[in-house]
Amino acid sequence: MKDQLKKLEQEALGEVRSAADRDSLETVRTKYLGRKGLLTEIFKKIGEVPVAERPEIGNLINQVKNNVAAALDEKLRSSAGAERKVEKIDITLPGVSFKHGSTHPITRTIEDISEAFLSLGFRVVEGPEIETEHYNFEALNIPLEHPSRDAFDTFYLHSPAGSHLLRSHTSPVQARFMEKNSPPFAIIVPGRVFRPDATDATHSFMFHQIEGLVVGERITFADLKGVLAIFARQLFGEDTQMRFRPSFFPFTEPSAEVDISCFICKGEKAKAQGQKRCSVCGGRGWLEILGAGMVNPKVFKNVGYDPEKVTGFAFGMGVERIAMLKYGINDIRLFFENDVRFLHQF
Ligand code: PHE
Fold first, then answer.
1. Helical spans, DSSP H, in 141-296
2. Whole-angstrom Cα distance, residue 117 to residue 58?
3. 169 CB near ligand 1 (under 6 Å)
4. Which of these, 89, 114, 263, 324, has the minimum number of CB atoms within 10 Å of its CB?
5. 280 phi-psi bin (left φ>0, alpha ψ -120 to 50, beta other)
6. Which helix (H) or strand (E) holds 78?
7. Position 284 pLDDT exceeds 80
């Protein structure tokens, strides 16, 4: 009986070792340890064993049972681990999707415009949104009686430190930069500006501008035209035409307002009879995009430059207006309402 038990143990352990999965391990367990299993059968025959040998055989049977059970448990534990590892990667499951944000159209327009000027050697500079009257007006030759200094046109702040205001344009950075740097240089200045306008489809009390300033020896109006032409073609397309109309700004002389040919109708619809008027330019064929001019010698004097030695040009454009033209957006308020249905389109 001892030999029979040893043989059975070897067989059982062998079968445990070669069992490939959970199910075959359970089969082995039933075969040897189950209620009608081989070891149980042997135990039932213990009555045939001489009384003197019974304790020894009984012990042996229990030992074999325990060994087989331990081997089964051990194998189950390790193969369960392996099975779980396999289950982890179910390549048939749909992936986890992440919500992507997108660049705000104003940020994107600022980046597009900046890129055009950076490629021409311009540098990006920033200035404070809370300004002094000096930089916002005086340094730029804007006289006291100028309408833009009126409280209806500018946000003034109560401040004991002197007269502060929210800058009404990015031009004050011209004066700030010139005071700290010497020509030659070429800079652009993107940033927020503030005017107490009643909000409607084309007005907002806060909007963005990009200022440009180039100062050096023998900088001419031809340089201004050349730089702006390259910028306009890069932003609105190779066949873009430009038009300069005489204008007035206290800090530039001469001054101009600059139009580009309508990049939607190319001015054609204005001429074509019976066709619907272009919704972007209203059939005029031109779009006003910025103000510009040669830096007024008085501004150079205000910052300590010698206007006999250096000349320069400046320009300023409204970012919202350009973004509205470029993307066909008809209401400036959409930029600031932050409706994701609007923002996701960019
Ligand atoms: N600062 C002017 C404005 O806000 C724009 C401008 C800038 C004009 C530089 C000429 C030169 O309207």
1. 172-180, 221-236, 268-271
2. 96
3. yes
4. 89
5. alpha
6. helix 54-88
7. yes
